[in-house]
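Worked problem 6 (solution included).
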Amino acid sequence: MHSVVERELELKLVLSPERAVAVPARLTYRTDDPCAVHIAFHIGSEHPVHWTFARELLVEGVFRPCGHGDVRVWPTKVEGRGVVMMALSSPDGEALLEAPATAVSAWLERTLRVVPPGSEGERLGIDDGLAELLAPTFGRGRVDELWLRDPWPSDESGDGE
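Solution. The predicted structure is:
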């Protein structure tokens, strides 16, 4: 069974140093995708804008600047309040968002209780998938002949005659 941790909150889209617009957003964490966080921004269009990036990036960004390229996150203070800044960049444009640090931190703590740091790989089932993929094939009580047969018989084996 998979769990989901969600949080609705209001972010600010920073348009200039003097101007910001409120943007409703939903933070989502799913245990079936344990390394990622998902953010949906409701910007007044028919469909929200979705971003997905590493949970570890957001966890680190609450404490210190991190990330490069498409997603950068850092803590700061605005008018005496702790905020988490997120700079997002894509071929469609760029956005600078300001999120309340206490709300983001509380939501992240809930995700970390559901899937502790370092245990994400266990949720992915990679080991089980690899074991199944690499297991010998059995058919009708005997090992499949294709599994045991030499794929490149030598000229001396007599298989070619």
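Discussion: The longest strand covers residues 4-16.
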